[in-house]
UniProtKB/TrEMBL annotation:
EC number: 6.3.2.4
Domain of life: Bacteria
Residues noted as binding Mg(2+) 1 in the record, renumbered to the chain: D302, E315
One Pfam family recorded for the sequence: Dala_Dala_lig_C
Protein name per Swiss-Prot or TrEMBL: D-alanine--D-alanine ligase
Database matches in InterPro entries: ATP-grasp, ATP_grasp_subdomain_1, D-Ala_lig_Van_CS, D_ala_D_ala, Dala_Dala_lig_C, Dala_Dala_lig_N, PreATP-grasp_dom_sf
């Protein structure tokens, strides 16, 4: 890559997840904050059906045109019989230096587009296929965290195969009389329910199964304080100051509505002032989790702190939001890194990780003539 020209960034957003519109907002903010003296930016939006629109169509949506109208204009141009149709728009531009996915949820955080970038042999920001996949799956995340000694809440996994055995009586005996029901592979509080009795438990599971076939049922933390921390880096990650989220007393938890739609009743403490011991414990837990999960580039990690001041890691987010409400960039701003500088660093970490992986060698040995050993069959008489 030449150093005397701008870095060409392909900014991908949208997707066929419940966080489609959140992704659009995040991408717009990132695009606006990018230093156009350093970067040429091409836009690619995944529609709600998972088809990638090209730069011009994506810019029309960025400029305020109704998405449905733009999609209606573009779909007749797509050869649906071409197996590469969902990603064919990438051929519109050349010499992409790095992919910058801002796709929350499915496609973006589950390792899907990371696999695409690897096939294309191009750098990209954020975690790789494996780290993205295990960090998106709440069950796999907890398994790795527990093995690494990072405190997290007790839970049970419910699937269509075992749900009849996972009765409210069994769950409440194991996890307590208040539980949270969560699809294992969803984000932004989609499909999440709080249950305090059998009917709420059954209804919550029924809805959650609309979003995944693996459901986590977690113990509730008494009077929790929601704490978030931003992580940045590759082999030597660093942590921001901590932020806190206080939701209105009338809300049961930090749900999709007050995360992305109406945060007028939410209080954000930036940075939050906690006892030094607790601040250090959360910071070290976050960094330990980041390394254990193999994350790279960036992550926002969420915690719950109980009434006794004991922190529990709630979940990591490998491609955190960059909306006006999102805490990831705000926590770095109060830690001394501006929005624009943060994007610069995220891109540089993506390029550095690609260069690091390019040093891995693969040896290919020709097999030559195949020689098969003698087979002895022991048949039952």
């Amino acid at each position: 890559m030449q150093t005397n020209r701008k870095i060409h960034v392909a900014l991908l957003f949208g997707g066929n997840s419940s966080e489609h519109d959140v992704s659009k907002r995040s991408a717009h903010n990132i695009y606006d904050a990018m230093d156009k003296q350093k970067y040429d930016v091409s836009l690619f939006m995944f529609t709600k059906d998972g088809v990638l629109l090209g730069d011009q169509a994506s810019k029309r949506i960025f400029d305020g045109e109704e998405e449905d109208d733009v999609v209606a204009d573009e779909y007749p141009k797509i050869d649906v019989h071409n197996p590469l149709a969902p990603i064919l728009a990438l051929q519109e531009v050349q010499d992409i230096d790095i992919f910058y996915p801002v796709i929350h949820g499915n496609l973006g955080e589950d390792g899907t587009v990371q696999g695409l970038f690897k096939l294309l042999k191009k750098p990209y920001i954020g975690s790789n296929v494996l780290a993205s996949a295990v960090s998106f799956d709440k069950d796999m995340t907890k398994r790795i965290l527990s093995q690494a000694g990072v405190r997290n809440t007790k839970y049970a996994v419910v699937t269509p195969e075992n749900k009849d055995a996972m009765t409210w009586t069994k769950i409440s005996q194991e996890l307590g009389n208040t539980v949270f029901i969560k699809p294992a592979n969803q984000g932004s509080s989609v499909g999440i329910h709080r249950a305090v009795n059998e009917q709420e438990y059954v209804d919550g599971l029924t809805d959650a199964f609309n979003y995944d076939f693996k459901i986590l049922v977690e113990e509730a933390i008494a009077g929790p304080k929601e704490i978030e921390i931003s992580i940045l880096g590759n082999e030597k990650p660093r942590a921001s100051k901590l932020g806190a989220v206080r939701v209105p007393d009338s809300d049961e938890f930090y749900d999709y509505q007050n995360k992305f739609v109406d945060a007028s009743g939410v209080v954000f403490e930036l940075p939050v002032i906690l006892p030094e011991k607790l601040t250090n414990e959360i910071t070290q837990m976050a960094l330990k989790a980041y390394v254990a999960l193999g994350m790279k580039g960036l992550s926002r990690i969420d915690f719950l702190v109980d009434q006794n001041g004991v922190p529990y890691l709630s979940e990591p987010n490998t491609l955190p939001g960059f909306t006006n409400i999102s805490l990831y960039p705000q926590m770095w701003e109060v830690s001394g890194i501006s929005y624009s500088e943060l994007i610069d660093q995220i891109i540089q970490y993506g390029l550095a990780e690609y260069q690091r992986n390019s040093k891995i060698k693969y040896d290919f040995e020709e097999l030559g003539t195949e020689h098969v050993g003698k087979k002895e069959y022991n048949l039952d008489e």
